[in-house]
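Request from the bench team (R.T.):
"We need a structural guess for the complex before ordering more 2-acetamido-2-deoxy-beta-D-glucopyranose. Sequence and SMILES attached. Just send the tokens back."

Command: build protein-2-acetamido-2-deoxy-beta-D-glucopyranose structure.
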Amino acid sequence: MRRVVLLCLLACLAVVVACGPKQQKRHVGDIRMKKNDNEADAIAFLERYNTESSRLLNKGIILDWAYNTNITDANAEASTAASLELQAFSLASFNEALEFDSTNFSEDTQRQLKSVGAKQLPEAEQQTLSEVLTLLRGIFTNILCIEMHVQIILRQILSNMSRIYGSGQVCWEDGQCSVLEGTEDSLSTLFATSTDEPKLRYAWEQWRTNVGRPMKPYYEQYVELKNQLAVIRNYTDYGHEMRSRYEIDDFELSMEEIYNTTLPYYLELHAYVRRKLYDTYGPEVVDLEGPIPAHLLGDMWGRFWNNIYNLTEPYPGLQSVDPTPQMVAQGYTPERMFRQGDAFYQSMGLKAVPDTFYELSMIEKPQDGREVVCHPTAWDFFDGQDYRIKMCTVVSFDDFLVIHHEMGHIQYFMQYSDLPTVYRDGANDGFHEAIGELMSMAVSTPKHLETIGLIDEVVENPDLDINFLLKTSFGSLSTLPFHYVMDLWRWRAFRGEYPDNQWNDEFWKLKESLVGVKAPVERTPEDLDPPALFHISGDYDMMRYFTRTILQFQFFESLCEASGHQGPIYKCDFSGSTAAGDRLAALLRMGRSKPWPDALEELTGQREMDVNPLLNYFAPLYNWLQTENKRLNNKIGWKPSNSFA
Ligand SMILES: *[C@@H]1O[C@H](CO)[C@@H](O)[C@H](O)[C@H]1NC(C)=O
Ligand SMILES: *[C@@H]1O[C@H](CO)[C@@H](O)[C@H](O)[C@H]1NC(C)=O
Ligand SMILES: *[C@@H]1O[C@H](CO)[C@@H](O)[C@H](O)[C@H]1NC(C)=O
Ligand SMILES: *[C@@H]1O[C@H](CO)[C@@H](O)[C@H](O)[C@H]1NC(C)=O
Ligand SMILES: *[C@@H]1O[C@H](CO)[C@@H](O)[C@H](O)[C@H]1NC(C)=O
Ligand SMILES: *[C@@H]1O[C@H](CO)[C@@H](O)[C@H](O)[C@H]1NC(C)=O
Ligand SMILES: [Zn+2]
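Reply to R.T.: structure attached below.
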């Protein structure tokens, strides 16, 4: 380890020394350089770039896949080397793109130039330094050296955080330790199934002590370095860069507005859930007028509330909203679940996955002793024919829905595969996430379950509708404040708004005031809780989940309309409707070639994100919650907490 650090310092120093003098001359936006304003040159450059980047992406993704489905040192090294090669190419291309003055170029050329260099492989394991040095000598002689210097350190910091996260565990009094997921005694299983409050509280605290705390110095450096890179790329800070991907003028204000508009619905849901948790855990743990303690919501972070549906079911004893037992009884297998997912898309006239999909995907946890990354993901190999999903499927309805979600990504990949590489992406990140969720909404309807033989008959019962809507809200409506606050906190951190050592305090202030959730145990200045969530230490934005939740209901409404659906929107199942499929395909085919409002307009006729479809969908639940909360005299909202459970 120590040798690696020393080498790194030398390497970084070497870069800075070797190209130090050029730095000032080559700053972005430097007007002393005469730029190329010949559009034909730019188009030729873009053609070269698109071809070469899809070649490198394909090569890198093949190796990355090999690593993810077979974790060995050799596979990690191979994948890292490819990732570095791509990163080097991206960086060089990004700088080459800056040499054009695109003022008078067509809109499309301008848009493509702006997207050059954005594609990177996911963070692989730490690279060996000799590889870095070789690459540096070969490729980086004439581009921004400072940027590469920052990139190298940043990669190590991200890799260090990922190692801490991946090896994080909680050890119990008897000496046994639990990892986060993938085992029977995992922490995820604990949070999903246990109501042993002291145990949950202990796990909650220990996870943050063992994961968040050691990450703190890295996370602070990460923020600083990300900001430096953002400034080189002409953003005020990294939060600005993250927001700019959404192409909305005042993104922060728009998101705040969405939060505000959906808040009354969230408040009713919150009050109802808090009462149910109070019934389960008692007044010692849950204050009926305070924020909800964060460890009682069914996962390590209080992100998705699906797992507490049991504790909160409005009308127990009715037809189950989860047909897992039927699936098991009917002998469902993972392959059958995938083929049925594929059939769902085809029934709408959308594309079938290629045969190679079934040959090459990993749809079950391998039994040959290989270590794999189980987290479900969908993969585009950028060659227009190879698409795969990696998932350790179990036969359950939840996984059936996950399959429809992942297949939504695959459908998107296939639909935009004809576009230049720079455009092979979602209109924004929320779009990519929304497609599969939208399909899952149709799949969960009783009508669809009857069609595929998972329930005997559709029972018409308003109480059952309320059960169904509450279940649906736990993966959508209830997540809005959570996702909003994660990024709001980061935007402020990147802007440098927090005094030293108050980052965590500020986080909990936001959590309490905007989410109505509090830490169950006292936090100290040594703690840093946000990176104890995968997406924060892993450098993924959360607004994709916030925006997708709004978008998925907008899309849903339009597809239901196209399919000729009558009656309450939450009963809509548009499977089998090619009219709906055509509308969706038109959006998917656009990829990222136009600003996202154009893609949205293609499907919905609107150019803005609109919360009304979501609010309409949940209106019956909202009315029911209002009545129920009044009946039980539940306080709406919360007063500040000053105690810990
Ligand atoms: C950098 O940002 C400023 C302000 O937004 C803008 O005026 C300028 O054109 C940008 N420069 C480049 C090279 O993009
Ligand atoms: C896993 O990767 C190693 C190389 O590190 C290779 O030798 C082995 O055959 C791979 N296993 C499978 C099942 O692909
Ligand atoms: C763009 O076009 C305008 C008007 O024709 C011209 O004045 C300007 O010099 C051109 N700019 C570049 C960079 O070619
Ligand atoms: C990454 O972690 C190692 C081992 O703990 C440490 O020696 C190294 O300094 C860290 N890297 C950076 C860039 O902080
Ligand atoms: C959201 O609501 C808060 C509190 O009522 C208010 O201060 C803020 O201006 C609102 N923001 C927007 C964008 O409407
Ligand atoms: C929740 O449901 C699961 C399976 O559906 C069951 O095993 C468990 O006992 C239930 N828990 C509670 C608290 O009702
Ligand atoms: Zn997804």
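Two things stood out. The CA atoms of residues 262 and 611 lie 7 Å apart. The chain has three domains: 2-162, 169-318+477-543, 324-466+554-601.
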